[in-house]
Specification:
The chain is mostly helical. It is about 80% helix and about 0% strand. It is built from seven helices and no strands. α4 packs antiparallel against α5.
Length: about 180
């Protein structure tokens, strides 16, 4: 039923029309939604069965699993949106073919967006990824620092003659 609802929303048709169906690795949103909800309902109905056969430990475990599955479904939905957004934005960036290095920039955009949405999805699922976040922040900080240094050196070398003239003018004014 859930798969049919997603089919009625025509998400899969929209993904095919816009050329984004490959964003999900060949999966359709309707089949993915249907499978996730099917397993959630299945586990929810196992709880009373475990109570009937007097397995309270299994019942508690199944209840916790049934309570966690909506978070998993939300995490998967967030990741699906992230994959589609990454594909769309990277393809949009690669349209600027006149820019040198646009393929590298496009790939960088795709990776950053996927990492961003993966972080949100993993938090929703309940996975603590502080070490990975800190590592990514260090890497991004290093890249920004290196780029800033390269730009500073480039401007410094490029404007050396002008800087010499400015310094000479200042020395004349000071004397």
């Amino acid at each position: 039923a859930a798969g049919k609802i997603v089919e009625k929303l025509k998400v899969d048709a929209w993904l095919r029309e816009t050329g984004r169906s490959d964003s999900l690795g060949g999966l359709t949103t309707s089949s993915l939604t249907a499978k996730l909800i099917k397993w959630w309902v299945f586990i929810a109905f196992l709880v009373p069965a475990a109570n009937i056969i007097k397995l309270p430990g299994l019942s508690v475990l199944l209840i916790k699993l049934a309570e966690w599955l909506p978070h998993l479904i939300a995490g998967v939905a967030i990741m699906v949106v992230g994959l589609i957004a990454a594909d769309f934005l990277a393809d949009s960036a690669s349209q600027a073919k006149s820019l040198k290095g646009i393929k590298l920039i496009s790939s960088f955009i795709r990776v950053i967006i996927i990492i961003f949405f993966a972080d949100i999805a993993l938090r929703e699922i309940g996975i603590n990824i502080i070490l990975a976040e800190q590592t990514i922040l260090l890497i991004v900080g290093g890249i920004v620092l290196a780029a800033s240094l390269a730009i500073g050196i480039g401007f410094g070398l490029g404007l050396k003659k002008h800087a010499d003239e400015i310094v000479k003018d200042l020395r004349k004014k000071i004397k």
